[in-house]
Amino acid sequence: MAKPISYTLAPLVVAAAAALAVANWMLRPERAWFWGLALAVLAGMTAALYVVRHRSGGETPRDAAADSIRGAVVFAALMLIVPLGARLAANFGLPPHADTARRLTMILTGGFLAFTGNTIPKTLTPLSALRCNPARVQALQRMLGWTWVLTGLGFALAWLVLPLDVANPVSDVVLAAGMIVTVSQVFLGQRARPREAGL
Amino acid sequence: MNRVFKALSDPTRRRVLQLLRERPLSAGELSEHFTVTKPTMSAHFSVLQEAGLIEAEKSGRTILYRLKVSVLEEALLGFVDTFARDAKTRKLAGRGPLKGDA
User: ipTM of the assembly?
Assistant: First the structure.
């Protein structure tokens, strides 16, 4: 199977974030602890990428887990790149655009929610390991997948188009709605299990 | 992604995916819904497996097929199905293809 784009992208975005952190450190050494913290987080991501370096694009659950870790690293590094880039731009006298950095970070958060939701129905547990009706599990996974893709897209869209003071409460409501649907579906699924076992 | 498009281009394979939306099914149960031969069905299953849209799991002496589509792939399946149905309706009505179709 072909390797996903995150296989190539993950080391690149981590390296870009590290370069931005180092550049910021050199320009503003008085905030060394902040840049050091960012570099420590990036070192953790690099370690995670190193651990899963030989696994990608395969059929096994370990390959799927490795690809999932790589995807998470890409989003996490992008979330670091935005504020680091904004700080660096401010150091060069460019307008700080704090609002833009916040918007971008929130849009990325929405993108991450949608990305994660998209893969939920693809994460299969072996039938032999399932302790309840496989059809119900499949329906639940599809429902949760759609819920989080729509929640993520709604969240990102709110931060993309709405004024900041409106985007904040709207995205909170969207997120809360996604959580309520998730909890209620899982709760209903749990309640249905004993009845099925008795059939 | 090419493999996914190839897999979704065939109506039999799309129907297999629709049947698997309900629950995991064995090869025999799936074949009952089609008039094609078993080797042909096996070829369809292989294409779907290669595209990562279904997963086969051995359960005793039977092989159970399960749906393994992401939300994006499911949305794509819905789109392809809608357009294919629309094209079929137009063909049956004798209206011909839409302007710009090859």
Answer: 0.81
